[in-house]
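so my prof wants the structure for this chain in the tokens format not the other one, which i didnt know existed until like an hour ago. anyway here's the sequence
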Amino acid sequence: MVKESDLYAPVKALLETRGYSVKAEINDCDVVACKEGLPPVIVELKLVFTLELVFQAINRQNRSDDIYLAVLAPNTPAKRKNWRSRRRDCVKLCRLLGLGLMTVDLTQKPGRQTDVLLDPCPYRPRKNRRQQTRLMTEFTARRGDPNTGGVSRTIIITSYRQDALRCAVALSDGDNKTVADIKAASGTPRTATILQKNYYGWFERTSRGVYCLSPLGREGLQIYAEVIPTLGDNSG
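here's what i got, hopefully its the right format
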């Protein structure tokens, strides 16, 4: 059975190839490597990537800026699949915290067992203006607070769905209406786009520029009956 101590030799060998002098178990640190003129490198060893390992590494940052987490490379198909799904997030977390990350594959030949995925460095995330704009646009456009934070496997009432519901309500009397009439009744600026794309299948085009409510639309009004009274109009 593989032990955490089995990771030590490959990690030590890697650091020695970088010119460091390496010793184990120095003041509760699994691995400490020193090179003249540079801050010490500290490596914490674990068989799997865990929050416990992350906390351990964070607690070492008052001793050095160069802290690595070293974990055993997955050695079964199931573990490899799980690691592939988590690797990007693990690397991102380490980058955010200014930590380094390496994996140790004991099935490889000596000298090729350690793979450095990330070196520690200060992290300043770049803001994605497009994503920030989308966030604020949705926040501003959504009327009220129709959802509950933290829920899963439930339909989110977005501002788009609210506007589509307003258009459906405007057609709920069963009459065919023009786009202009629906827009005026719903107070929804993007009425034309909603009707043309018909994302939810709630509308039917009866003639050029004229629409009615589809059976799915009538069903939608029933499904979201509790939401409809909260919609108001979309003009303010």
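also thought this was worth mentioning. Residues 109 and 225 are 65 Å apart (CA to CA).
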